[in-house]
Fold these 3 entries.
Entry 1:
Amino acid sequence: MPPATGSSTKKRPKKKALVARPFDPSKRVVAVTGANGYVGSDLILRLERQTGCSKILAIDVRKPSIPVHKTQFHKIDLTMPTADADLAAIFRRESVDTVVHAAFLSAPTHAAAWAHELESIGTMHVLNAAAEAQARKLILWSQTVVYGAHPLNPNFLTEDHELRGNPRSRFVQDKVEAEKQVRRFARENPDTIVTTLRTAPTLGPTIRNFATRFFSRPMAPVLMGFDPLMQFVHEIDALDAFEKAVVEDHRGEFNIVGDGVLPYTTILAMMGKIPLPLPHFLAYPLSQALWATQIFDSPPNFLDFLRFLCVADGEKAKREMHFFPRYDIKQIIADFLGVEPQPAFEGA
């Protein structure tokens, strides 16, 4: 579907330049796109408790069903051609200094054209608005799947590793494209603090996403001859990183991952799942058929992550952001299963 959202090319009358409001860290104004997603809604609840946030703007097509006091809801459809102009007007009027762009899907969808409009074109609209409103800070939610599962991947992927993605996965490629747009935005707007947080597959007792659905099934496919290492991040740790990125200044890209890795079959055993061994040459066409008939919600290209490594290095986030996850991989799995885990780190 061609991106016929011509908001980036149409000419608008020149507006009188506005003088940016002096930044006061005790009176932050934060706009959060994707306010109904688990990142957006939980982050808004945390910012509501932040004394340094004077106002929060929830941007989405539906009003979040969460208790709020400092939050204003603004109905914006990021797939619409006028989204960037509408956002820019709101950002300017409300003196937004921080934009958190979290309007991304947490699971693949058969509505690939719409997903592209939301994530790729929607990101363009958000960046246009942030540039026009001279936002002080932009925070992007990305995922470690942008590295792609590949037989040549090293044991741990650092932030400067190539984003291989997966050309056969619209879900992954839209996120790669969004990251490329944000990198270009950072070069063209050096005064804006740009932070990209790449979260590992996120598990926890309350969230619902692709990983939680996959590991909630009683059986799981195992590709014969392959047993890659895997990692997760706890939902609390992921939100800790976003909150830290809002209240502190950290330029660059950061892997947000829990401590430790385990082989895939070990994870299945810990979760009490029944492994279903399949040769990979049979698993792919079978998965394609189940995906095409919408019997199964996992596209065939995700079998790559059951064959090859895609494990991100979290040392940069520890070193530069002082982000130390509370939960290691065993504790993440225990909490996901409803077993009482003890946090590995009792930090803030």
Entry 2:
Amino acid sequence: MDKLIGFLRAKRWARRTLTGGTALLIVVAVVLLGFPLYSNWVHNQLQHRLRNQLASPQLKDAYQNHRLKEGDSLTRLRIPTLGVDVVVVEGISADALKAGAGHYPGYPLPCDVGNVAIAGHRTTYGKPLANVDQLNVGDQIILDTPVGSCTYQVDTKPFVVLPNDVGVIKTPPTPAAPKGADHLLTLTTCTPKGSASHRLIVQATMLNSQSA
């Protein structure tokens, strides 16, 4: 330690390098700690606006006529066992997912025939899918839309796939599928938490639906 102190006293550039490195580490720490707080603030502001939009006649008309734009409210996603209650938007771009969760464009709308595919965050922007790994077979997922609602039931334990495995959000052939398998819901999120190396998948089949 004495040698290190002596070296720093003798070398001005070493002192500057150490000071700069320390300052950089402090900045990185502030960013790492502050970004989740900032993203959650953005998420909360968006959710307030999205809930109002979801209840508007204009949104209902756009929904019925398939004229939703990226970032528009699409459905309210509720998972009672996890306490999740979030408005899902149309689109899965980085901007759209600031809402917390987004619907894959081009895939069936909530409660429709086919595989309704929704992606969401686990660690930022409200982290609505933070604990979906804790879901069990039989747990329910509810989607409330401008034109009605439907309830899905988790039919398999959450599982992990590679990011390029898009087969999980495709609709399987229905002729030999069990009852309800033509109305599916798939939730996707990054795993492990804080990493995008893999995707955690939750799949469910519809139990019932009702019109508004």
Entry 3:
Amino acid sequence: MHPTFTRRRLLAGAAVCAGLLAPLTTSHAQTAAAWPGKPLRFIVGFPAGSSPDLTARALAEPLEKALGQPVVVENRVGAGGNIGGDAVAKATDGHTIGLMINGNLTIARLLNPALRYDPATDFAPISLIGVAPLVLVAPASAPGSDARSFLDAARAAGSKWSYGSPGVGTVGHLGMELLKARTGIAPVHVPYPGYPQVFNALVGGDLQLSMLPPALAQTQIKAGKLRGIGVTGSGRSPLAPELPSLLDAGVKQFNLEIWNAVVAPAGMPRAHVARLAEAISTIVRAPEMRQRLFQQGWQAVGSSPEGLANRIQADTRVLGQIIRTQGIRVD
């Protein structure tokens, strides 16, 4: 066959393919722009008035304006947020998303192999919303003049000291186990039903240390009921600006934060995920929303889906190592 004729046929074929693909691409974009076609269900695995619930409701109104459809917050409470997580993972209506905390998206299956969803495969990441360090706290009368001397006292006390958390497998529990591994301290874990009971035990002298969310810790520190030792982030946090990071206090390889994020079921089309990610990240980065989240105890982020996916993987790696090393399980 003549080379010129062959080249003409190839060019003609390419033109035909391009003509076929162009309408598909345009149709795909038009479908994404037309979505959502009905109200969006925004599932939260925690009760009304909880931190995840407040965050979801703060996002709902501006998200309604951005998408042109109502956004209905639905509380599916229980199992530390995992009932809500399962509802998001199993949703097939194409109009369901979820506001979830870091534990549900990272270590839930490692803690409980019988969990009905798999955080690694059952979700499409959309956007990281807010992050916050934990605050290492102690009774107001705790020994030591700073974080280093306090940790020296904790090492000397060995298992005579106890620390509290709001339950086995919570970030407060795993964070303390990570601190033990990094510092050589050895306080005994005492689980409680929730943070209020942990706080009461600290004030009453039944516990010598704990890790609390900054919003809760700062209230009690300012009231003189607890003493702040340091924060678990990579540096000082605007949520607790007067406290050093534990890294600054000499605790190596220790960077732990709590966070929340929006995800969708893994089967949601990529174009819809992209539209949600763009809308939500823009909302979260707006000054008024940053301030609102800050008042709730969060530093606003508003990441891409890839940014959230990377955070999920990194935290699963760090906390997973603690779970495996300590043999921690939640029945």
